[in-house]
Amino acid sequence: MAADNGLQQSEHYHLFDTTFGPCGVAWSARGLKRLQLPERDAGATEKRLRARATEPGSAPSAIRHVVAMLQGYFAGDKSDFSGVELDLGDVGPFHLTIYRLTRDLGWGETATYGELALRAGSPGSARAVGQAMGRNPVPIIIPCHRVLAAGRKVGGFSAFGGTVTKERLLRLEGVSLLAEAPLLALLESNGLKP
What we know:
Structural class: alpha/beta
Number of strands: 6
Number of helices: 7
Order of helices and strands: EEEHEHHEHHEHH
Strand order of the largest sheet: 3-2-1-4
Largest sheet: 4 strands, mixed
Shape: globular
CATH superfamily of the largest domain: Winged helix-like DNA-binding domain superfamily/Winged helix DNA-binding domain
Low-confidence stretches: 1-8
Oligomer: single chain
Strand content: 5-15%
Distance between the termini: 41 Å
């Protein structure tokens, strides 16, 4: 993860389609700065991305590679984003630590907010971990969807669709939280929706 040296970096963005819907990325010369998960439509996705990125741009090869990996991920490929260069220069030290620990979670692996707080050397800071997840500028690359509330409950998710999107991403990776919710599993096995 690249650090900020105090210089303002130009930021560009690019929209692309996935099986989940239209996504977007923003980058600087230092690396990927943002990943916008699908909103209700492509226009809403672009509007959300433009709120932070300065202008559309032709993606350099490293960004095109990330886009291809993301398209594969949303199609069910076990993509490994650990080598993606990030520009997180505007992120504080605690969040950087939490993001590094979250990036260590592999495909289908989960941890709780409390577990990440403990790994960061800040037991009792589960709420601060949740705040870091809510401000995550590059979901999927920093897989905040893999971070759960205590008791393997889904917890929150700030992307469009909220926890439904989070659960969809977890199911894509083979993670089922239904084992923790027998009534929900019973309803679904009988063709009923809660």
